[in-house]
Amino acid sequence: TAARAAENATFAFKPIDIATDDLIHVPEGYESNVLVRWGDALWSDAQGAFSHENGVSVDMSDKVFGENTDGMELFDVDGKQVIAVNSEYVNPKVNLPEEAEGMPRTAEEVQLLKNLQGVTVMEVEAADKGFKVVVDSPLNRRITHETEMMIAGPLAGSDLVKTNADPMGTTVKGTMNNCGSGRTLWNTYLTCEENFNGYFGATGEHEATPGEVRYGIGGEGRYAYEKFDPRYDLTQEPNEPNRHGFVTEINPADPNSTPVKRTALGRFKHENAEMVHAKDGRVVVYMGDDERGEFLYKYVSTNTWAEGQSPEGILDDGTLYAAKFNDDLTGEWLALTPETTGMSGEEILCFTRMAASAAGATTMDRPEWVASNPLKVEAYCALTNNKNRGVKPNAGGDETPVDAVNPRETNNYGQIVRWTPADENHAADNFAWDLYVMAGNPDVYDNEYAGSDNVNAGNMFNSPDGMAFSSDGMLWIQTDGDYSNEGEFEGMGNNQMLVGNPETGEIARFMTVPYGAEVTGLCWSLDKKTAFVGVQHPGGTWPDMGEGNKPRSSVVAVWRTDGATFG
Ligand code: FEO
Ligand code: CA
Ligand code: CA
Ligand code: CA
Protein backbone atom coordinates (compact mmCIF):
# COMPACT_ATOMS: atom_id res chain seq x y z
CA THR A 1 0.00 0.00 0.00
CA ALA A 2 2.95 2.37 0.47
CA ALA A 3 3.69 1.97 -3.23
CA ARG A 4 0.06 2.69 -4.04
CA ALA A 5 0.05 5.77 -1.83
CA ALA A 6 3.17 7.05 -3.56
CA GLU A 7 1.20 7.24 -6.78
CA ASN A 8 -0.32 10.40 -5.30
CA ALA A 9 2.62 12.42 -4.09
CA THR A 10 1.59 16.04 -4.42
CA PHE A 11 -0.82 16.40 -1.50
CA ALA A 12 -0.09 17.85 1.93
CA PHE A 13 -0.99 14.49 3.48
CA LYS A 14 -0.01 10.92 2.86
CA PRO A 15 -2.98 9.24 1.21
CA ILE A 16 -4.51 6.40 3.20
CA ASP A 17 -5.41 2.88 2.23
CA ILE A 18 -8.96 1.59 1.96
CA ALA A 19 -10.67 0.28 5.09
CA THR A 20 -13.36 -2.34 5.65
CA ASP A 21 -13.71 -1.97 9.42
CA ASP A 22 -16.04 -0.07 11.75
CA LEU A 23 -13.74 2.86 12.40
CA ILE A 24 -12.83 6.27 11.02
CA HIS A 25 -9.40 6.57 9.43
CA VAL A 26 -7.52 9.79 8.61
CA PRO A 27 -3.92 10.32 7.40
CA GLU A 28 -0.84 10.26 9.59
CA GLY A 29 -0.55 13.58 11.40
CA TYR A 30 -4.33 14.03 11.62
CA GLU A 31 -6.76 13.07 14.37
CA SER A 32 -10.52 12.76 14.56
CA ASN A 33 -13.17 12.72 17.24
CA VAL A 34 -16.95 12.67 17.33
CA LEU A 35 -18.52 16.12 17.75
CA VAL A 36 -22.17 15.11 18.09
CA ARG A 37 -24.31 11.98 17.63
CA TRP A 38 -28.06 11.69 17.03
CA GLY A 39 -29.73 11.84 20.41
CA ASP A 40 -27.09 14.10 22.00
CA ALA A 41 -28.55 16.99 24.00
CA LEU A 42 -28.65 20.54 22.65
CA TRP A 43 -30.19 21.78 25.89
CA SER A 44 -29.39 20.59 29.40
CA ASP A 45 -32.89 19.29 30.09
CA ALA A 46 -32.26 16.69 27.39
CA GLN A 47 -28.96 15.51 28.82
CA GLY A 48 -29.04 11.75 29.19
CA ALA A 49 -32.19 11.57 27.05
CA PHE A 50 -30.66 8.96 24.75
CA SER A 51 -30.23 5.35 25.73
CA HIS A 52 -29.17 2.42 23.59
CA GLU A 53 -32.15 0.54 24.88
CA ASN A 54 -34.88 3.08 24.08
CA GLY A 55 -33.37 5.80 21.89
CA VAL A 56 -35.03 9.10 22.85
CA SER A 57 -38.58 9.75 24.04
CA VAL A 58 -40.99 11.82 21.98
CA ASP A 59 -40.87 14.80 24.36
CA MET A 60 -37.06 14.93 24.19
CA SER A 61 -36.90 14.31 20.44
CA ASP A 62 -36.81 17.98 19.41
CA LYS A 63 -34.18 18.84 22.02
CA VAL A 64 -31.47 16.56 20.68
CA PHE A 65 -29.28 16.35 17.60
CA GLY A 66 -31.26 14.78 14.76
CA GLU A 67 -30.76 11.51 12.90
CA ASN A 68 -28.80 10.92 9.67
CA THR A 69 -26.67 14.03 9.42
CA ASP A 70 -26.19 15.47 5.93
CA GLY A 71 -25.23 18.85 4.42
CA MET A 72 -23.87 21.49 6.81
CA GLU A 73 -22.31 24.95 6.89
CA LEU A 74 -20.51 26.86 9.63
CA PHE A 75 -21.30 30.52 10.32
CA ASP A 76 -19.59 33.31 12.21
CA VAL A 77 -22.30 34.81 14.44
CA ASP A 78 -20.63 37.70 16.28
CA GLY A 79 -17.52 35.60 16.75
CA LYS A 80 -19.45 32.49 17.81
CA GLN A 81 -19.16 29.42 15.60
CA VAL A 82 -22.56 28.10 14.60
CA ILE A 83 -23.15 25.00 12.50
CA ALA A 84 -26.42 24.54 10.64
CA VAL A 85 -26.78 20.89 9.69
CA ASN A 86 -29.41 18.72 8.03
CA SER A 87 -30.98 15.53 9.35
CA GLU A 88 -32.10 13.91 6.16
CA TYR A 89 -34.24 10.95 7.20
CA VAL A 90 -34.85 8.45 9.99
CA ASN A 91 -34.18 4.76 10.50
CA PRO A 92 -37.39 3.72 12.30
CA LYS A 93 -35.86 0.37 13.25
CA VAL A 94 -33.19 2.26 15.19
CA ASN A 95 -35.27 5.25 16.33
CA LEU A 96 -38.50 3.55 17.42
CA PRO A 97 -38.99 0.92 20.13
CA GLU A 98 -38.24 -2.58 18.93
CA GLU A 99 -41.92 -3.61 19.17
CA ALA A 100 -42.75 -1.09 16.44
CA GLU A 101 -40.81 -3.26 13.98
CA GLY A 102 -39.73 -0.26 11.97
CA MET A 103 -43.10 1.45 11.43
CA PRO A 104 -44.77 4.01 13.70
CA ARG A 105 -47.91 2.69 15.42
CA THR A 106 -49.22 5.92 16.93
CA ALA A 107 -49.35 9.66 16.31
CA GLU A 108 -46.74 10.00 19.07
CA GLU A 109 -44.31 7.74 17.25
CA VAL A 110 -44.88 9.72 14.06
CA GLN A 111 -44.15 12.88 16.05
CA LEU A 112 -40.88 11.40 17.28
CA LEU A 113 -39.78 10.65 13.72
CA LYS A 114 -40.81 14.14 12.56
CA ASN A 115 -38.72 15.67 15.32
CA LEU A 116 -35.57 13.71 14.55
CA GLN A 117 -35.45 15.16 11.02
CA GLY A 118 -35.09 18.63 9.58
CA VAL A 119 -32.28 20.94 10.63
CA THR A 120 -30.19 21.51 13.74
CA VAL A 121 -28.57 24.88 14.40
CA MET A 122 -25.95 24.62 17.15
CA GLU A 123 -23.11 26.65 18.55
CA VAL A 124 -19.82 24.76 18.77
CA GLU A 125 -16.54 25.59 20.48
CA ALA A 126 -13.04 24.15 20.68
CA ALA A 127 -12.62 21.46 23.36
CA ASP A 128 -9.91 19.12 24.64
CA LYS A 129 -10.23 16.72 21.76
CA GLY A 130 -11.59 18.64 18.81
CA PHE A 131 -14.84 20.50 19.34
CA LYS A 132 -18.00 20.26 21.44
CA VAL A 133 -21.57 21.50 21.18
CA VAL A 134 -22.35 24.49 23.42
CA VAL A 135 -25.33 23.02 25.31
CA ASP A 136 -27.97 25.68 26.10
CA SER A 137 -26.49 28.25 23.70
CA PRO A 138 -29.23 30.77 22.87
CA LEU A 139 -28.36 30.15 19.21
CA ASN A 140 -29.25 26.45 19.38
CA ARG A 141 -32.37 25.53 17.46
CA ARG A 142 -34.21 22.54 16.07
CA ILE A 143 -36.25 22.89 12.91
CA THR A 144 -38.49 19.89 12.26
CA HIS A 145 -41.28 18.69 10.01
CA GLU A 146 -43.62 20.87 12.09
CA THR A 147 -41.77 24.20 12.18
CA GLU A 148 -43.71 27.15 10.70
CA MET A 149 -42.24 28.49 7.45
CA MET A 150 -43.11 31.07 4.85
CA ILE A 151 -43.65 30.40 1.17
CA ALA A 152 -41.91 33.11 -0.86
CA GLY A 153 -41.42 33.78 -4.54
CA PRO A 154 -43.81 33.30 -7.44
CA LEU A 155 -45.62 30.28 -5.96
CA ALA A 156 -46.65 32.18 -2.82
CA GLY A 157 -50.42 32.56 -2.98
CA SER A 158 -50.75 30.23 -6.00
CA ASP A 159 -53.73 27.89 -6.14
CA LEU A 160 -51.20 25.07 -6.54
CA VAL A 161 -50.03 25.47 -2.93
CA LYS A 162 -53.32 26.22 -1.14
CA THR A 163 -54.57 23.70 1.42
CA ASN A 164 -57.31 23.50 4.04
CA ALA A 165 -54.84 24.59 6.69
CA ASP A 166 -53.42 27.37 4.52
CA PRO A 167 -56.14 28.77 2.23
CA MET A 168 -53.86 31.69 1.30
CA GLY A 169 -50.97 29.48 0.15
CA THR A 170 -48.36 31.49 2.04
CA THR A 171 -47.34 29.47 5.09
CA VAL A 172 -46.30 25.84 5.48
CA LYS A 173 -45.09 23.53 8.19
CA GLY A 174 -41.77 21.80 7.96
CA THR A 175 -38.81 21.21 5.72
CA MET A 176 -38.35 17.58 4.72
CA ASN A 177 -35.63 15.17 3.65
CA ASN A 178 -32.99 17.83 4.02
CA CYS A 179 -30.11 16.54 1.97
CA GLY A 180 -27.37 18.89 0.77
CA SER A 181 -26.80 22.46 1.82
CA GLY A 182 -25.60 25.82 0.68
CA ARG A 183 -24.88 29.25 2.04
CA THR A 184 -25.88 32.61 0.74
CA LEU A 185 -23.49 35.48 0.09
CA TRP A 186 -25.28 37.20 3.01
CA ASN A 187 -24.48 34.33 5.41
CA THR A 188 -27.73 32.47 5.75
CA TYR A 189 -28.18 28.72 5.45
CA LEU A 190 -29.81 26.95 2.51
CA THR A 191 -31.31 23.54 3.24
CA CYS A 192 -32.35 21.43 0.28
CA GLU A 193 -35.48 19.24 0.28
CA GLU A 194 -34.72 16.04 -1.60
CA ASN A 195 -36.91 12.92 -1.42
CA PHE A 196 -39.94 14.75 -0.01
CA ASN A 197 -42.28 12.57 -2.05
CA GLY A 198 -41.82 9.61 0.30
CA TYR A 199 -43.57 11.29 3.23
CA PHE A 200 -46.98 11.40 1.54
CA GLY A 201 -49.48 8.63 1.06
CA ALA A 202 -53.16 8.09 0.32
CA THR A 203 -55.51 6.56 2.87
CA GLY A 204 -58.34 6.33 0.33
CA GLU A 205 -58.93 6.35 -3.41
CA HIS A 206 -56.40 8.56 -5.09
CA GLU A 207 -55.57 8.59 -8.76
CA ALA A 208 -52.08 10.00 -9.23
CA THR A 209 -51.80 13.02 -11.52
CA PRO A 210 -48.98 13.19 -14.12
CA GLY A 211 -47.27 15.75 -11.87
CA GLU A 212 -47.38 13.35 -8.92
CA VAL A 213 -46.18 10.45 -11.03
CA ARG A 214 -43.16 12.42 -12.28
CA TYR A 215 -42.13 13.11 -8.67
CA GLY A 216 -42.90 9.62 -7.36
CA ILE A 217 -45.82 10.74 -5.21
CA GLY A 218 -48.56 8.24 -4.43
CA GLY A 219 -49.05 4.85 -2.84
CA GLU A 220 -48.01 4.52 0.76
CA GLY A 221 -45.83 6.97 2.67
CA ARG A 222 -42.53 5.57 3.85
CA TYR A 223 -43.21 6.30 7.55
CA ALA A 224 -47.04 6.01 7.60
CA TYR A 225 -47.40 9.72 8.43
CA GLU A 226 -50.63 9.85 6.43
CA LYS A 227 -52.33 7.41 8.80
CA PHE A 228 -51.95 9.81 11.73
CA ASP A 229 -51.76 13.29 10.21
CA PRO A 230 -54.21 14.38 7.47
CA ARG A 231 -51.64 16.87 6.14
CA TYR A 232 -49.70 13.94 4.66
CA ASP A 233 -52.79 12.21 3.26
CA LEU A 234 -53.13 12.79 -0.47
CA THR A 235 -56.79 11.88 -0.24
CA GLN A 236 -57.40 14.88 2.04
CA GLU A 237 -54.67 17.36 1.08
CA PRO A 238 -53.61 16.73 -2.54
CA ASN A 239 -51.73 20.05 -2.70
CA GLU A 240 -49.56 19.51 0.38
CA PRO A 241 -46.72 17.84 -1.61
CA ASN A 242 -46.62 20.91 -3.89
CA ARG A 243 -45.38 22.85 -0.85
CA HIS A 244 -42.22 20.74 -0.47
CA GLY A 245 -39.22 20.01 -2.65
CA PHE A 246 -37.75 23.49 -2.40
CA VAL A 247 -34.59 25.23 -1.26
CA THR A 248 -35.35 26.73 2.17
CA GLU A 249 -33.43 29.64 3.68
CA ILE A 250 -32.71 29.78 7.42
CA ASN A 251 -31.04 32.59 9.34
CA PRO A 252 -28.64 30.86 11.76
CA ALA A 253 -28.02 34.11 13.64
CA ASP A 254 -31.66 34.46 14.75
CA PRO A 255 -33.27 31.44 16.41
CA ASN A 256 -36.67 33.16 16.25
CA SER A 257 -36.57 33.82 12.51
CA THR A 258 -39.06 32.10 10.21
CA PRO A 259 -37.48 29.85 7.57
CA VAL A 260 -38.46 30.75 4.00
CA LYS A 261 -39.14 28.40 1.09
CA ARG A 262 -37.65 29.99 -2.02
CA THR A 263 -40.00 28.76 -4.74
CA ALA A 264 -38.23 30.70 -7.50
CA LEU A 265 -35.45 28.07 -7.31
CA GLY A 266 -37.84 25.37 -8.51
CA ARG A 267 -39.35 22.23 -7.10
CA PHE A 268 -37.49 18.97 -7.53
CA LYS A 269 -35.44 16.52 -5.46
CA HIS A 270 -32.90 19.13 -4.49
CA GLU A 271 -29.43 17.87 -3.63
CA ASN A 272 -27.59 21.06 -2.69
CA ALA A 273 -27.54 24.75 -3.62
CA GLU A 274 -24.18 26.25 -4.58
CA MET A 275 -24.43 30.03 -4.64
CA VAL A 276 -21.90 32.11 -6.53
CA HIS A 277 -21.64 35.75 -7.41
CA ALA A 278 -21.59 36.25 -11.17
CA LYS A 279 -19.13 38.70 -12.73
CA ASP A 280 -22.04 40.98 -13.62
CA GLY A 281 -23.23 41.15 -9.98
CA ARG A 282 -26.21 38.82 -10.31
CA VAL A 283 -26.57 35.90 -7.91
CA VAL A 284 -26.39 32.39 -9.35
CA VAL A 285 -27.41 29.16 -7.60
CA TYR A 286 -26.40 25.80 -9.09
CA MET A 287 -28.59 22.85 -8.13
CA GLY A 288 -28.77 19.13 -8.93
CA ASP A 289 -31.93 17.02 -9.01
CA ASP A 290 -30.83 13.65 -7.71
CA GLU A 291 -32.72 11.03 -9.62
CA ARG A 292 -31.79 8.93 -12.62
CA GLY A 293 -32.46 10.87 -15.79
CA GLU A 294 -33.20 14.19 -14.11
CA PHE A 295 -31.37 17.47 -14.64
CA LEU A 296 -28.80 20.02 -13.53
CA TYR A 297 -30.23 23.50 -12.92
CA LYS A 298 -29.19 27.04 -12.22
CA TYR A 299 -31.07 30.04 -10.95
CA VAL A 300 -30.00 33.55 -11.94
CA SER A 301 -31.39 36.52 -10.02
CA THR A 302 -32.94 39.35 -12.00
CA ASN A 303 -31.27 42.04 -9.91
CA THR A 304 -27.67 42.38 -8.90
CA TRP A 305 -26.53 42.22 -5.31
CA ALA A 306 -23.48 43.67 -3.57
CA GLU A 307 -22.07 43.31 -0.06
CA GLY A 308 -23.93 45.57 2.32
CA GLN A 309 -27.17 45.58 0.29
CA SER A 310 -30.39 43.95 1.40
CA PRO A 311 -30.87 40.54 -0.25
CA GLU A 312 -34.64 41.14 -0.34
CA GLY A 313 -36.06 39.67 -3.54
CA ILE A 314 -32.76 38.26 -4.81
CA LEU A 315 -33.99 34.67 -4.35
CA ASP A 316 -37.61 35.45 -5.28
CA ASP A 317 -37.21 37.08 -8.68
CA GLY A 318 -35.06 35.39 -11.29
CA THR A 319 -34.87 32.85 -14.08
CA LEU A 320 -34.46 29.12 -13.77
CA TYR A 321 -32.34 27.28 -16.36
CA ALA A 322 -31.67 23.58 -17.06
CA ALA A 323 -28.40 22.38 -18.56
CA LYS A 324 -27.94 20.96 -22.04
CA PHE A 325 -24.60 19.23 -22.55
CA ASN A 326 -23.54 18.88 -26.18
CA ASP A 327 -21.24 16.06 -27.26
CA ASP A 328 -18.67 18.58 -28.56
CA LEU A 329 -17.91 19.70 -24.97
CA THR A 330 -20.01 22.85 -25.23
CA GLY A 331 -23.19 23.42 -23.31
CA GLU A 332 -26.14 25.74 -22.96
CA TRP A 333 -28.36 26.85 -20.14
CA LEU A 334 -31.94 26.55 -21.35
CA ALA A 335 -34.21 29.16 -19.77
CA LEU A 336 -37.43 27.66 -18.42
CA THR A 337 -40.09 30.12 -19.54
CA PRO A 338 -43.70 29.85 -20.77
CA GLU A 339 -42.32 30.16 -24.34
CA THR A 340 -39.78 27.32 -24.00
CA THR A 341 -41.99 24.98 -21.95
CA GLY A 342 -45.61 25.69 -22.84
CA MET A 343 -46.29 25.93 -19.10
CA SER A 344 -47.35 28.85 -16.92
CA GLY A 345 -44.79 30.52 -14.67
CA GLU A 346 -46.35 28.86 -11.61
CA GLU A 347 -46.41 25.43 -13.26
CA ILE A 348 -42.73 25.76 -14.19
CA LEU A 349 -41.79 26.29 -10.54
CA CYS A 350 -44.11 23.59 -9.19
CA PHE A 351 -43.45 20.94 -11.86
CA THR A 352 -39.92 21.98 -12.75
CA ARG A 353 -38.92 18.53 -13.97
CA MET A 354 -41.59 18.62 -16.64
CA ALA A 355 -40.55 22.11 -17.67
CA ALA A 356 -36.93 21.02 -18.12
CA SER A 357 -38.06 18.01 -20.17
CA ALA A 358 -40.12 20.29 -22.40
CA ALA A 359 -37.17 22.63 -22.89
CA GLY A 360 -34.92 19.76 -23.99
CA ALA A 361 -32.40 19.59 -21.13
CA THR A 362 -29.89 16.71 -20.96
CA THR A 363 -30.88 13.77 -18.74
CA MET A 364 -28.09 13.06 -16.27
CA ASP A 365 -26.71 10.19 -14.19
CA ARG A 366 -28.15 11.48 -10.88
CA PRO A 367 -26.81 15.00 -10.23
CA GLU A 368 -25.71 15.25 -6.59
CA TRP A 369 -23.65 18.13 -5.16
CA VAL A 370 -22.36 21.07 -7.12
CA ALA A 371 -19.21 22.85 -5.87
CA SER A 372 -17.61 25.96 -7.32
CA ASN A 373 -13.89 26.63 -7.31
CA PRO A 374 -13.10 29.72 -5.18
CA LEU A 375 -9.93 30.39 -7.20
CA LYS A 376 -11.39 30.04 -10.67
CA VAL A 377 -14.69 30.58 -12.49
CA GLU A 378 -15.69 26.93 -12.80
CA ALA A 379 -18.05 24.50 -11.10
CA TYR A 380 -18.28 20.74 -10.63
CA CYS A 381 -21.22 18.38 -10.26
CA ALA A 382 -21.02 14.81 -8.94
CA LEU A 383 -23.04 12.45 -11.15
CA THR A 384 -23.20 9.69 -8.63
CA ASN A 385 -24.20 6.65 -10.73
CA ASN A 386 -26.94 5.28 -12.94
CA LYS A 387 -27.48 1.59 -12.45
CA ASN A 388 -30.58 1.26 -14.59
CA ARG A 389 -30.09 3.24 -17.75
CA GLY A 390 -32.86 2.58 -20.19
CA VAL A 391 -35.42 1.97 -17.46
CA LYS A 392 -37.42 5.19 -17.39
CA PRO A 393 -36.64 7.07 -14.19
CA ASN A 394 -40.29 7.83 -13.53
CA ALA A 395 -43.29 7.46 -15.74
CA GLY A 396 -43.32 10.63 -17.76
CA GLY A 397 -39.55 11.05 -17.46
CA ASP A 398 -37.29 11.18 -20.49
CA GLU A 399 -35.21 8.51 -22.18
CA THR A 400 -31.67 8.46 -20.78
CA PRO A 401 -29.36 7.68 -23.68
CA VAL A 402 -25.60 7.32 -23.39
CA ASP A 403 -23.96 10.60 -24.40
CA ALA A 404 -20.64 12.35 -23.90
CA VAL A 405 -21.39 13.58 -20.38
CA ASN A 406 -23.06 10.31 -19.30
CA PRO A 407 -20.80 8.04 -21.31
CA ARG A 408 -21.32 4.56 -19.85
CA GLU A 409 -24.29 2.27 -20.37
CA THR A 410 -24.49 0.72 -16.89
CA ASN A 411 -22.88 3.30 -14.66
CA ASN A 412 -22.13 1.82 -11.23
CA TYR A 413 -19.19 4.11 -10.54
CA GLY A 414 -20.23 7.66 -11.42
CA GLN A 415 -18.35 10.67 -12.79
CA ILE A 416 -17.74 14.33 -11.99
CA VAL A 417 -18.47 16.90 -14.68
CA ARG A 418 -16.96 20.38 -14.61
CA TRP A 419 -17.93 23.45 -16.58
CA THR A 420 -16.43 26.85 -17.32
CA PRO A 421 -19.00 29.58 -17.99
CA ALA A 422 -18.53 31.78 -21.05
CA ASP A 423 -16.79 35.13 -20.36
CA GLU A 424 -15.95 33.93 -16.84
CA ASN A 425 -19.54 34.83 -15.96
CA HIS A 426 -21.62 32.30 -14.01
CA ALA A 427 -24.74 34.06 -15.32
CA ALA A 428 -23.76 33.41 -18.98
CA ASP A 429 -25.95 31.23 -21.21
CA ASN A 430 -23.10 29.10 -22.54
CA PHE A 431 -20.30 27.02 -21.10
CA ALA A 432 -17.52 24.60 -21.96
CA TRP A 433 -17.34 21.33 -20.05
CA ASP A 434 -15.22 18.25 -19.46
CA LEU A 435 -15.22 15.25 -17.16
CA TYR A 436 -12.91 15.87 -14.22
CA VAL A 437 -12.97 12.19 -13.36
CA MET A 438 -14.75 9.04 -14.39
CA ALA A 439 -14.65 6.71 -11.41
CA GLY A 440 -13.83 3.10 -12.15
CA ASN A 441 -11.89 0.03 -11.17
CA PRO A 442 -8.58 -0.43 -13.01
CA ASP A 443 -7.96 -3.70 -11.13
CA VAL A 444 -11.08 -5.31 -12.57
CA TYR A 445 -11.47 -3.63 -15.96
CA ASP A 446 -9.28 -2.40 -18.78
CA ASN A 447 -12.06 -0.67 -20.70
CA GLU A 448 -14.07 2.49 -19.87
CA TYR A 449 -15.06 0.93 -16.55
CA ALA A 450 -11.42 1.22 -15.43
CA GLY A 451 -12.12 4.93 -15.07
CA SER A 452 -10.27 7.98 -16.33
CA ASP A 453 -6.48 8.39 -16.23
CA ASN A 454 -6.54 10.02 -12.80
CA VAL A 455 -8.05 6.88 -11.24
CA ASN A 456 -5.62 4.23 -10.05
CA ALA A 457 -5.46 1.25 -7.75
CA GLY A 458 -4.46 3.54 -4.90
CA ASN A 459 -7.32 6.05 -5.07
CA MET A 460 -10.27 4.24 -6.57
CA PHE A 461 -13.78 4.96 -5.36
CA ASN A 462 -17.36 4.81 -6.56
CA SER A 463 -20.44 7.04 -6.38
CA PRO A 464 -19.17 10.56 -5.72
CA ASP A 465 -21.86 12.54 -3.89
CA GLY A 466 -20.90 15.35 -1.47
CA MET A 467 -18.38 17.92 -2.71
CA ALA A 468 -16.91 21.13 -1.37
CA PHE A 469 -13.88 23.25 -2.12
CA SER A 470 -11.42 24.31 0.55
CA SER A 471 -10.14 27.87 0.37
CA ASP A 472 -6.89 26.66 -1.23
CA GLY A 473 -8.82 25.48 -4.30
CA MET A 474 -8.82 21.74 -3.56
CA LEU A 475 -11.95 19.71 -4.33
CA TRP A 476 -13.07 17.43 -1.48
CA ILE A 477 -15.11 14.48 -2.73
CA GLN A 478 -17.31 12.32 -0.50
CA THR A 479 -18.73 8.98 -1.58
CA ASP A 480 -22.07 7.27 -1.04
CA GLY A 481 -21.55 4.05 -2.87
CA ASP A 482 -21.16 0.32 -2.79
CA TYR A 483 -18.99 -0.60 0.23
CA SER A 484 -19.01 -4.38 -0.30
CA ASN A 485 -15.37 -4.35 -1.44
CA GLU A 486 -16.33 -7.24 -3.70
CA GLY A 487 -16.62 -7.95 -7.40
CA GLU A 488 -16.43 -4.77 -9.40
CA PHE A 489 -16.07 -2.80 -6.17
CA GLU A 490 -13.11 -4.82 -4.90
CA GLY A 491 -10.31 -2.55 -3.77
CA MET A 492 -12.63 0.36 -2.99
CA GLY A 493 -13.52 -0.53 0.61
CA ASN A 494 -15.78 1.57 2.79
CA ASN A 495 -17.09 4.96 1.71
CA GLN A 496 -14.44 7.62 1.75
CA MET A 497 -13.48 11.24 1.34
CA LEU A 498 -10.86 12.13 -1.24
CA VAL A 499 -9.14 15.33 -2.26
CA GLY A 500 -8.83 16.31 -5.92
CA ASN A 501 -6.44 18.80 -7.42
CA PRO A 502 -8.38 20.62 -10.16
CA GLU A 503 -5.21 21.67 -11.99
CA THR A 504 -3.38 18.34 -12.20
CA GLY A 505 -6.41 16.07 -11.93
CA GLU A 506 -4.72 14.09 -9.14
CA ILE A 507 -6.97 12.55 -6.50
CA ALA A 508 -5.91 11.15 -3.12
CA ARG A 509 -7.81 9.36 -0.37
CA PHE A 510 -8.01 11.39 2.85
CA MET A 511 -10.53 9.60 5.04
CA THR A 512 -12.56 6.42 5.32
CA VAL A 513 -15.74 5.97 7.37
CA PRO A 514 -17.20 2.92 9.15
CA TYR A 515 -18.65 0.04 7.16
CA GLY A 516 -22.12 0.81 5.86
CA ALA A 517 -21.87 4.58 6.30
CA GLU A 518 -21.75 7.26 3.66
CA VAL A 519 -19.72 10.43 4.06
CA THR A 520 -21.85 13.51 3.72
CA GLY A 521 -21.53 17.14 4.70
CA LEU A 522 -18.30 19.08 5.10
CA CYS A 523 -17.42 22.45 6.58
CA TRP A 524 -14.53 24.04 8.44
CA SER A 525 -14.01 25.94 11.67
CA LEU A 526 -13.48 29.69 11.28
CA ASP A 527 -9.70 29.28 11.67
CA LYS A 528 -9.70 26.45 9.05
CA LYS A 529 -7.85 24.19 11.47
CA THR A 530 -10.72 21.75 11.95
CA ALA A 531 -12.90 20.06 9.37
CA PHE A 532 -16.37 18.81 10.27
CA VAL A 533 -17.45 15.72 8.38
CA GLY A 534 -20.80 13.93 8.45
CA VAL A 535 -21.14 10.18 8.84
CA GLN A 536 -24.60 8.97 7.81
CA HIS A 537 -26.19 5.55 8.39
CA PRO A 538 -23.24 3.63 9.88
CA GLY A 539 -23.84 -0.10 9.52
CA GLY A 540 -22.49 -1.51 12.79
CA THR A 541 -22.64 0.07 16.24
CA TRP A 542 -20.31 3.01 15.58
CA PRO A 543 -19.45 5.27 17.31
CA ASP A 544 -20.37 3.91 20.76
CA MET A 545 -19.60 0.33 19.69
CA GLY A 546 -20.63 -2.61 21.85
CA GLU A 547 -22.88 -5.56 21.11
CA GLY A 548 -26.57 -4.67 20.77
CA ASN A 549 -25.98 -0.92 20.78
CA LYS A 550 -27.60 1.39 18.27
CA PRO A 551 -25.61 2.91 15.41
CA ARG A 552 -25.52 6.71 15.68
CA SER A 553 -25.04 8.96 12.69
CA SER A 554 -22.60 11.65 13.84
CA VAL A 555 -20.61 14.69 12.87
CA VAL A 556 -16.87 14.15 13.29
CA ALA A 557 -14.16 16.78 13.80
CA VAL A 558 -10.82 16.25 12.02
CA TRP A 559 -7.70 18.29 12.75
CA ARG A 560 -3.93 18.25 12.25
CA THR A 561 -1.94 17.24 15.30
CA ASP A 562 0.52 20.06 14.57
CA GLY A 563 -2.36 22.55 14.72
CA ALA A 564 -1.86 23.81 11.16
CA THR A 565 -4.70 24.97 8.92
CA PHE A 566 -5.91 22.71 6.12
CA GLY A 567 -9.28 24.10 5.06
FE1 FEO B 1 -29.64 12.76 -0.18
FE2 FEO B 1 -28.90 12.67 -3.31
O1 FEO B 1 -28.49 12.48 -1.59
CA1 CA C 1 -26.22 13.07 -1.23
CA1 CA D 1 -26.10 9.61 -2.80
CA1 CA E 1 -27.88 9.73 2.06
From TrEMBL:
InterPro entries in the record: PhoX (IPR008557), TAT_signal (IPR006311)
What name does UniProt use for this protein?
A: Transcriptional initiation protein Tat
Transmembrane residues, as ranges?
Answer: none
- What Pfam families does UniProt report for this protein, alphabetically? PhoX
